UniProtKB/TrEMBL annotation:
InterPro entries cross-referenced by the UniProt entry: DUF4426 (IPR025218)
Superkingdom as given in the UniProt entry: Bacteria
DUF4426 domain sequence ranges: 37-152
Signal peptide segment: 1-25
Keyword terms: Signal
Protein name: DUF4426 domain-containing protein
Pfam families assigned to the protein according to its UniProt record, in alphabetical order: DUF4426
Keyword Signal attached: yes
Amino acid sequence: MGAYTQLIARGLFMTLMLFAATVSAQQTAQVQGGQFERLGSWEVHYSAFPSSFLQPEVAQAYNLVRSRAQAVISISVLDQESKQSQRVAMSGYALNSLGQRKELNFRRITEGDALYYLSSIQHGNDDRYRFFITIRHGDNSEELRFTQTFYRN
């Protein structure tokens, strides 16, 4: 990986994990940043936010669409004790308020020792989604559930 690509990769990781600190007070009410759940022996960090928060170079580097109608779901799975990134299988879906199901297709991103998983979803204004994400490693399987409302800013 070239120096420029590494810089972009670090930029994406920082954007995904720290984006809430850079949004306005109005937008902060609609985003959930820095959240995590303890599931089994894992610490699962997750966020869902408008793809328009990404810098154009970062979105392009990771083939993500920047749009007012597109959101990014970012998940990282750490071992609770060692805090090491975990390589897992991840699948899931989201249900909107009408009960319509949208499948999530996660891509694994590796940056040095860090692993995280990205997916995206299209949304309307004031669209509330319930997320159901299954995380598997060997015989271990856990389900992450959370709710997020998206707005077109």
